[in-house]
């Protein structure tokens, strides 16, 4: 079997994404007959039908679905290769795609990124915030080179390296009855209205499990996208929340709230640096992962 043509593969994926050969042709600025010919040649080469063409448009056969899965990874790898090679021409010696959780971005990760770039100004780090499950999924699917996220989601199929361990604390209005306690269990918060991160965050399931273990329910009055917003809404009387303890120095005095450490077994989670395959990473991304691991080791 001769090598597959990347252009034909791209046109096949475009047809699936657009749902018809005509729309795929318009998107790729090519005549529909040429798209149809490319896909027919691809089917002949692979000796299986890839598309079902009907009144509802073009849909993938089981073989087409399998090809699409591999084709996306192939084109992503080719795109990454082209970006890296272009970087050498332009003097930017690498671009790292990083997915990071709100917890890591509120902690030491930004400082670690800046220290890395201070020594390697020709490497760019493109950062996108995602919730923890989406980070591991994105790295697994090749949408990012590196992910940094908590242990509150499955990272099966990935290589993970310990990054940081952090403590979680209740954040309470200054006048709350529990505000002077040295430490409390999460269950003590369940009589109050709660302010939490969005439902698709990794920690949401942890809170569900903790409430179930305490044999009670919880009332969530607000779901937000950042721990900073949790603190702000607590300060404005909307309820109580759980945030990383390292926010205490920045938020306690500024917002007139109080941080009380939690005593639960899950309240000192780890975060990980995750990759699909360290040895297969671009050189720049390997250097970045090594830098994060060294920073974590130095921090203890």
Polypeptide structure, described:
It contains 11 helices and 12 strands. With 300 residues, it is α/β, with parallel strands linked by helices. The model has no long low-confidence stretch (mean pLDDT 89). The strands form 3 sheets. It has a 5-stranded mixed beta sheet, sandwiched between helices. Helix 2 (21-28) crosses helix 3 (32-46) and helix 6 (109-119) packs across helix 11 (283-299).
Q: Can you count the helices?
A: 11
- Helices and strands, in N-to-C order? HHHEEHEHHEHEEEEHEHEHEEH
Lateral strand order in the biggest sheet: 4-3-5-12-6
Decide which structural class fits the backbone: alpha/beta
Helix content: 40-55%
Separation, N- and C-terminal Cα atoms: 53 Å
**What are the segments in which pLDDT stays under 50 over at least 5 consecutive residues?**
none
Radius of gyration: 24 Å
Q: Tell the overall outline.
A: elongated
- Count of DSSP strands: 12
Q: Give the biggest sheet.
A: 5 strands, mixed
Put the structure in a nutshell.
Helix content is 45%, strand content 22%. The chain has 300 residues and is an alpha/beta fold.
What distinguishing features does this structure have?
alpha/beta, 11 helices, elongated, 5-stranded mixed beta sheet, 300 residues, 45% helix, single chain
Element layout with pairings:
Elements: H1 6-18, H2 21-28, H3 32-46, E1 51-54, E2 57-60, H4 62-90, E3 95-100, H5 102-106, H6 109-119, E4 124-129, H7 132-140, E5 146-150, E6 159-165, E7 168-173, E8 193-197, H8 202-213, E9 219-224, H9 227-235, E10 240-244, H10 248-255, E11 257-261, E12 270-275, H11 283-299
Parallel strand pairs: 3-4, 3-5, 8-9, 8-10
Antiparallel strand pairs: 1-2, 5-12, 6-12, 7-10, 7-11
